[in-house]
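To the wet lab folks,

You asked to see what we're planning to order before we commit. Fair enough. Below is the target structure as tokens, and below that is the sequence we designed to fit it. If anything looks off to you, flag it before the synthesis order goes out.
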């Protein structure tokens, strides 16, 4: 599989603030890579560097930054790289007083599509994103989810090989989020003649779980990356499910127990995150500790971690 997105030693300071620190990425054709991180982690900064909208720090500790997208050097062949990539910014702006079709025509013309090319391409792409029935609707009258779909259509209008999506579904209703992900999966699908490589930033862990690989970004640093299964395996022995009649008291006691990093309520049970892998002996001693503290335990067992658990564990470890 050819590498479609490659970044080495990307650093970006804003004044004294290190927004991105030594980012290295290698993403293959047809992969869906999720960049996950909290507010201010550096996701937008990373995507803006990758599409050439922002320049990285020239040197960092003697390393020269490199960024190649679809085989083009983003910093030195910026136009060629841009011709091959589609970018949906976090704050995508439409012309609210133009129709859906007029907006898309505008983006097509900016991308250099000729008068013969733009119309069939726009109809095709509007059909793909499910906006074909709304071509004449003013963009200002679209729902939030429809606007994001039009943004995706605009990013795809010139048939890019690489797609950079910055929180495309934030604030979008759950049904439209599903639709949106179906589109992403279809674009990257292996059945395609030319599968699109997708880098998508998201604050949603359920979306991260749908990616082929995920990178966790925090305070400008990529903490870890891997497939969702690899990431879950990092802490597979460290999440316990705890049940009992008095959840509040049980949680309180669990928080005081040795080896427990955190105790969170999950509906009618508690999820404990441990500082180290649990073995049988630990489970027995924890149960004993909780009972000594006066809490009745009806069940205590290891459960499969969620990506959210992994992220929380990493964040705590790096503190
Ligand atoms: N143009 C800028 N000038 C100064 N600081 C900036 C600029 N752009 C971003 N920053 C800062 O860099 C850090 C990373 O910002 P960035 O927008 O990349 O984060 P993010 O992960 O996209 O966050 P969010 O989830 O809120 O979109 C933040 O502390 C932000 O305030
Ligand atoms: Mg952002």
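Sequence we intend to order:
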């Amino acid at each position: 599989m050819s590498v479609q997105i490659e970044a080495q030693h990307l650093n970006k300071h804003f004044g004294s603030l290190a927004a991105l620190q030594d980012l290295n990425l290698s993403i293959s054709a047809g992969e869906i890579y999720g960049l996950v991180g909290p507010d201010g982690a550096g996701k937008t900064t990373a995507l803006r560097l990758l599409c050439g909208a922002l320049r990285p720090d020239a040197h960092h500790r003697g390393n020269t930054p490199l960024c190649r997208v679809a085989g083009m050097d983003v910093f030195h062949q910026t136009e060629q790289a841009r011709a091959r990539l589609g970018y949906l910014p976090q704050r995508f702006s439409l012309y609210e007083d133009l129709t859906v079709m007029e907006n898309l025509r505008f983006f097509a013309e900016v991308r250099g599509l000729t008068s013969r090319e733009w119309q069939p391409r726009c109809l095709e792409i509007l059909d793909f994103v499910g906006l074909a029935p709304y071509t004449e609707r003013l963009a200002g009258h679209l729902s939030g989810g429809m606007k994001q779909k039009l943004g995706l259509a605009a990013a795809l209008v010139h048939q890019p090989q690489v797609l950079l999506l910055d929180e495309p579904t934030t604030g979008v209703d759950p049904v439209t989020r599903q639709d949106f992900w179906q589109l992403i999966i279809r674009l990257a699908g292996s059945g395609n003649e030319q599968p699109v490589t997708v880098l998508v930033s998201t604050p949603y862990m359920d979306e991260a779980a749908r990616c082929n690989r995920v990178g966790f970004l925090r305070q400008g640093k990529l903490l870890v990356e891997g497939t969702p299964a690899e990431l879950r395996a990092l802490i597979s022995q460290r999440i316990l499910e705890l049940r009992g009649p008095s959840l509040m008291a049980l949680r309180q006691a669990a928080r005081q127990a040795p080896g427990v990093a955190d105790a969170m309520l999950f509906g009618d049970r508690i999820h404990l995150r441990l500082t180290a892998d649990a073995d049988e002996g630990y489970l027995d001693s924890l149960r004993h500790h909780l009972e000594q503290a006066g809490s009745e335990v009806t069940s205590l067992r290891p459960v499969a971690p969620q990506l959210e658990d992994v992220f929380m564990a990493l964040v705590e470890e790096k503190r």
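Structural context that might help your review: The chain has two domains: 3-232, 237-303. The mean pLDDT is 93.

Thanks,
Computational group
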